[in-house]
Amino acid sequence: MFCTRIALVLACAALAAGQTQPPAKQQRDLTVEKIGPPPAVPKAVTIPRSYAVVVGISRYKNLAEKYQLQFAEQDAQAIKTILISPEGGSFKEENVQTLIGAKATLAELKKQIDTWLPSVAKPDDRVLIYFAGHGFLFGGKAYLAPYDIDPGNIARTGYPMDELGTVIGGKIQAKWKILMTDACHSGAITPEDTQSLNRSLSTLNQSLFSLTASRDRESSFESPELRHGVFTYYVVEGLGGAADTDHNGIVTADELAEYVHTQVREITKGQQNPTSDRGSFDPEMLLSYVPANASPAAPPAPKYGTLVFETNTDGVELFLDDVSKGVLSKGKPLSVPGLTPGEHTVKGVKMGYEPDGPRQEMVYPGQESTVSIKILIPRHRNKAAVDLLDKGLKDYEKGYEKNYRSAAELFEKALQIDPTYSQAAYYLARTYNALFDEEKARQYFKKAIEIDPDYLEARAVYGGMLLDIGDTDEAIRQFNAVLQRQPDHALALTNLAQAYRLKDLYPRSIEAAREAIKLTPANAEPHLWLADSLRLSGKFADAKTEYGQYLSLSDFDSKLAGQLNYWVLGSLIGFGRKKRAAQQDIWKDLRSLAYFGLCDCDYRLSNYDSAIAYCQRSLAYNSGDPYAHLALGLAYERKAIANNSVAELCPAQKHFQAVLTINPDLTEAGYAKQNMANISKIWPCP
Q1: Mean pLDDT of the 618-634 span
Q2: Which of 63, 120, 467, 626 falls between 20 and 30 A from 410, CA-CA?
C-alpha cells in the first residue's frame, strides 16, 4: 500500500519538476532577389510581427586575400541596428537572427532561412532576409557565398538562389516579404534576365519586395569614405527616415526603392544601379516607421547634397541632426551624402572635452561641402564640484539606504555647480537606482548620455537599470550601441548575456557571456549568466562548472559587497529577489541564485542529497525565495521516492507550504499546493 502511495507522489512530483526554473573600393560579386508586399498601410499605423535573417561576411575561409571584403559585416550590424530600432523597423531583438563572419556557414544559412523562418512566420507577418557578401554564378545558376564556400566546388558549398526562391515562395507563409542583397551581379538573378534561373520566383511577384544592390553586369561597391557598402549605407539611411519623402513617418517599399536607387546611382556616377521590380510588390508596404519624421511640411527638394566631415583628433563621435553617424578619426574623412538641402545640426563629441557644436551647417543641392570638427578644449571641472563628487562616491561605496541618500545630495550639488559634469549625473543615476527611484535614475542616466553621448559606461549601466525595470528591448539597444563602438566592452557583453537570458535566448546569452569571460576571466558575473543559460538549455553538468566559477570568484567577505559594480542590480529582474537598497543584499541574492542553480542541476541529475544541500545554502542567503523553497521541496520528495521512505516527506511539505506563504499567486504555488495534498494522503505531518 505504501509503495502505491509513493508512486502517486512520484507522478505529482514529475508534473511539478518541470516548473522549478525561474521563468580602395572593393567589389562584391553576386546576385539578389526581393521580397514581398503587405496590404495598404492603414491610417492608424500597425507594425506587423516581424522576423529577419541578417547575414554579413567580410572575410571568407577559402578565398584569397584579394577577394576579402572590408565592410560587409559592419553593414549587417547596421541593418540589424535599424531593424530593431523603434524609430526604424521595430523588429523584436529575439526575432532577428544575425549571422556574422564565421557563423554564416552554409549549414547555418540553411538552418535559419530554410527551417527557422518557415517555422515561425505566420500569414500576417513580415519577413526580411538581408545578405552582404560575395555571390557566384556557376553552371547557369546563381549562389550566395557562405563563409565556408569552396570556389572549387560552388555547386555543393554555395547557397543556391533557386533554393532561396523556393523557400520564400513556398515555405514562408508571411505576406510581407523583403529580400535585400548587397553583392555584385545581383541584378542578373531575376526571372526576366535569366529565365532558366529560379523560375519559381516568377510566380512570387505579388508577395515579394526584392531590392538588389546592382543591375546585371554591374559591380556593387564598398566605400572607405562611407565605411559601408554603398547600397547598404543608403538602405539604412532610408529606413531611418531619409526615404520618407512625404513626411508621414512611414517608409514604404516604393519610397525606399526610389531613394536607394537615386542616391547610389548619384554617388557612384551611374556605375551602380540598385534594382527592384515595381510590379512585384505593393508600393505602400510598410518597411519602417519613424514617427518623429512625421510632419505636414512639403516634401524635400529632389536634389540632395553631401557633407564630408574631418576632425583634428581620433575618437570623435559625430552627430548629425541628433543621430550618430559614427566615430571620426584624424586623417580619415567621413562622407555623409543624401542630405536634404537646408540647415542641418552638427555636433562632435569626445568625452573629457568640450564638444564642437551643436551648430548649423548648410547643405546645398547637388554640392559637396567639407565640415571641420575641432575638439580643442579639455573640460575644466569646478574644484568644488569635483570635491563633492569624490565625497559622494565615498558614501555611495558604503552601500545601504542612509549612505545612498547622502551620496545623492552630494552628487546633486555637484551637478548644480557644473551642469556639464556627466560623471555627477551618472553617479546620481546609479544612486537613485540603488534607492529604487527608477524615474529619477532614468532621468539622470539620460542626462549623463546627453552631456557625453560617447559615455559608454553610462550606456552599459543604464541598460542594466532598464533590465531591472523590465525594458529589456531598450536595454539591448543600449548594449548594442556600446558594442558597435567598442566590441570588447566586457560590461556591455555581460549585461547583454543577462538580457538574452531573460528573453530565453540562451544560445545568444551563452555566446555573449563567453566573450565577456575571455575579456575579464576574473569577473564573476558573466559566469553566472553563462551557467543559468546552460542550465536552462539542459546542459546541467556544464552549468554546474560555471556556477562553481561564479561562487569561487565572488567568494569574499560580504562586508566588501559594497565594492561590487552597481550594475549587478539589473541581474535580479524576473526572479522576485530585489528588495532592499544595499549592495550586500545584491551580493547575497546573486549567491542565492547560483546555489539555486546548482540545486536545480543536481535535482535534474537525480543527485538529491547534493540538491538538498545546495537549496539549503541558497535559502541561507535568501530565505524568502519561493523558487528555492519549491526546488528544495521537490528534492526532498524525489529522495523519498528514490529511497521508498517517508522521512523526507514532512520536510518537503514544509517547503511547499513556504511557497504558499511567501507568494500564493505564483504559478509555482499551484504545484506546491498539489504536492502538499498528495503528501497528506500518504503521511500526516505535524
Answers
A1: 90
A2: 467
Residue 211 bridge partners (DSSP)? 180
Instruction: Give the Cβ contact number of residue 270 at 10 Å.
Output: 10
- The verdict on 113 and 198 lying in the same domain is yes
Same domain flag for 457 and 340:
no
Domain membership of residue 582 (yes or no) is no
Report the distance separating Cα 213 and Cα 227, nearest Å. 16
Residues in the chain: 686
Question: Taking the alpha carbons of 137, 143, 148, 150 in that order, is the dihedral positive or negative?
Answer: negative
Q: Specify the 3-state DSSP secondary structure of 505.
A: coil
Question: What are 298's strand-pairing partners?
Answer: none
CB neighbours of residue 61 within 10 Å: 13
> Cell triple for residue 594?
547560483
C-alpha 88/C-alpha 487 separation (Å) is: 23
Whether residues 119 and 134 share a domain: the answer is yes
* Amino acid 267: pLDDT: 84
CB–CB of 274/212 below 8 Å?
Answer: yes
Same domain, 83 and 55: yes
Element (DSSP H or E) covering residue 639: helix 626-643
Q: Provide the mean pLDDT of the chain.
A: 80
Same domain, 668 and 557: no
Residues 406 and 550 in one domain: yes
pLDDT-derived band at 360, boundaries 50, 70, 90: confident
Q: Which residues contact residue 481 at a Cβ distance below 8 angstroms, ignoring those fewer than 6 apart?
A: 324, 459
Residue 351 domain-assigned (yes or no)? yes
pTM of the model: 0.74
Which band of pLDDT confidence, cut at 50, 70 and 90, is reported for residue 492?
very high
Indicate if the pLDDT at residue 92 is higher than 50: yes
- The more confident residue out of 484 and 113 is 113
Q: Looking at residues 27-32, what average pLDDT do you find? A: 40
Please give the residue that has the higher pLDDT: either 686 or 168: 168
Asked, for residue 191, whether it belongs to a domain, the answer is yes
Residue with cell 496590404: 39
> What one-letter code names the amino acid at 108?
E
Close Cβ partners of 639 (under 8 Å, ≥ 6 residues apart): 608, 609, 612, 645, 648
Task: Give the domain CATH number at 365.
Answer: 2.60.40.1120
Residue 576 has pLDDT above 90, yes or no: no
- In this structure, the answer to whether residues 230 and 207 fall within a common structural domain is yes
Q: For residue 278, what pLDDT is reported?
A: 54
Q: Which one-letter DSSP state was computed for residue 248? A: S
Cβ pair 185, 218 in contact under 8 A: yes
611: how many CB neighbours lie within 10 A of its CB? 25
Residue 483 to residue 486: CA distance in whole angstroms? 5
Q: For a pLDDT cut of 70, what percent of the chain falls above it?
A: 83
We report the CATH number of the domain holding residue 286 as: 3.40.50.1460
Number of domains in the chain: 4
Residues 369 and 393 in one domain: no
> Range with the lowest mean pLDDT among 83-87, 531-535, 545-549?
83-87
Q: How far apart are CA 250 and CA 294, in angstroms?
A: 8
A 10 A CB-CB count for 676 gives 20
**Between residues 228 and 105, which one has the greater pLDDT?**
105
**Cα separation of 207 and 203, whole Å?**
9
* Structural domain harbouring 369: 305-373
